[in-house]
Amino acid sequence: MTVQEKIEGASAAVVTALSLVDVRAVDEALGRQPLDRLHFGNEFCETLLPSPGHVAAAIAAAERRGLGFALVTPMLSDGTLERLRPLLPMLPDGAEVIANDWGTLHLLRRAHPRLVPVAGRLMCKMVKDPRLPSAEWARLYPHGIHSRAFGKLLASLGVARIEMDVPPFAAAADFRSRTMRVSVHAPYGYSVKGRACRIGSLHQPDGEKFSTGHRCRKECLTYVADLSRPTTGTVDLATFQRGNTVFYRHSPAMTSVVQEALAQGWIDRIIVSGDWNENRCAHQ
After folding, report:
1. Strand bridging mode 96-99 / 116-119
2. Spatial separation of the C-alpha atoms in residues 166 and 180, rounded to whole Å
3. pLDDT digits (tens, 9 = 90+) for 172-222
4. β-strands 68-72, 37-41: how paired?
5. DSSP collapsed to 3 states, the chain
6. Greatest CA separation found in the chain?
7. Is 219 exposed, middle or buried (0-12, 13-18, 19+ CB in 10 A)?
């Protein structure tokens, strides 16, 4: 059963977006399931900020199918922010830009008012360790969508939508925001990210492994590292690493919470990760 099928019928207003980073997969992925939007780009690695040619191809694919379009961006350094600048004029009026740092949001507000800024899930901080043993641990560091101050700050930058992950031991009310519309990623959430790419470091000399600055071969688009720990008496969420980021797969209980929040109208968009073939990742 696909993620789309699991949430179907929960809310007539739900919008389904497909998130892709590899332009070669766009046409195949868009043909697999009914969609409303295409989100193109990467949230976790600035090396994977797409080229102008890839952005143009993704926009054309979305337009051929009558889909909305969003450019997804990671947390950007000053240098990569300069690479982003020529991409923004390419986007159609009303396109969204998923921003995961304050600099990108300021740039959009100041120079590109025709585009729609969205706060990415890296900006929605929360405890999402797939090894958490109980809900009490998760509540030690609640996320900010219930914070009026956070909502006011985002509103000052023109942001009316935020993306979220489903944390372990989530409750439906966790997705209820009085200030913003809420998008939720499925069926994977991210736990932690860094700058060093694990898989991209394996062929490096010992003194250069797990450092930044080496040439990227985009190994993360092909290889996935399954993560597990010795039996501890508790059941962790299925966990794996791609590039510089650790991810987990939603449990059935987490999927049920999303369905409840959809039924309540607290979530109005599901973002499905389209680059990760479920059979290949083997996280069933």
Report:
1. parallel
2. 17
3. 999 999 889 999 999 999 988 877 777 766 666 676 666 666 677 777 777
4. parallel
5. CCHHHHHCCCCCCCEEEEEECCHHHHHHHHCCCCCCEEEEECCCCHHHCCCHHHHHHHHHHHHHCCCEEEEECCCCCHHHHHHHHHHHHHCCCCCEEEECCHHHHHHHHHHCCCCEEEECHHHCCCCCCCCCCCHHHHCCCCCCCCCHHHHHHHHHCCCCEEEECCCCCCCHHHHCCCCCEEEEEECEEEEEECCCCHHHHCCCCHHHCCCCCCCCCCHHHCCCEEECCCCCCCCCCCEEEECCEEEEECCHHHHHHHHHHHHHCCCCEEEEECCCCHHHHCCC
6. 55
7. middle
Predicted structure pTM score? 0.85
Q: How many Cβ atoms from other residues are within 10 Å of residue 133's Cβ? A: 15
Q: How do residues 134-169 score in pLDDT, each as one tens digit?
A: 787 777 776 778 888 898 999 999 999 999 999 988
